[in-house]
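Notebook entry, structure prediction.
Reason for the run: the old model in the group folder had no record of what sequence produced it. Starting over properly, with the input documented here first.
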Amino acid sequence: MSFVWPWQYSFPPFFTLQPNGETRQKQLSAWCALALAYSQQHRLPAMTVREAQDIPLFANHRLQRKLPLESIQVVLEELRKNGNLEWLDKNKTSFLIMWKRPEEWGKLIYQWVSRNGLTNSVFTLYELASGDDTENEEFHGLDEAMLLRALQALQQEHKAEIITLDDGRGVKFF
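New structure, fully documented this time:
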C-alpha cells in the first residue's frame, strides 16, 4: 500500500514555517499529523535529525523543496509536546517518533500473550519483534527502542519482567 500524501505536501509554502501565529499553529498540526501517519506507514525506526532531513517526509523531490533543519526541529519539538516523540540524547540530535504510546504497544503485546496462552513464558526481544509467531501482529517489526518502552510499561503494571539472557534481553510475562 502506497502512502497517500495530504494536499499540503504538494503546496510549496508548506515547506516554509509561516510567521503568523494562527497559521503557523495550523501548519504545525498538519506537519505533526503527516509525521505520525508517515512514521506509522513506513515504521520508521529511531533516527537522527540529519537523517530525517533526507527522507521523503521532509523532502518533496517533485517540488524540489525541503523543510529546513531548524523547521524540522520545531516540528519534532511539537511532536514531543504532544507526547508523540522522545529525544534519545541531551543534544536533541536523535529521536523516536511514537505513533502509538508505549502503553498502547504494551497493551497490544499483552493481548497477544493472553490470547495465545503464553503467560509465564519467556521471549527474547527478537522473538517478539521479528519472530514467526508474531508475524501477523501489529507490533511485529517494532523498533527495539519502542519495544523496550512497551515492555517497561508492562513491567510497571506487573504483567512482565525484562530479563537479561545469555544472548541479550528478554521478557517473561505474568
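Summary: DSSP finds six helices and eight strands in the chain.
The old model has been moved to the deprecated folder.
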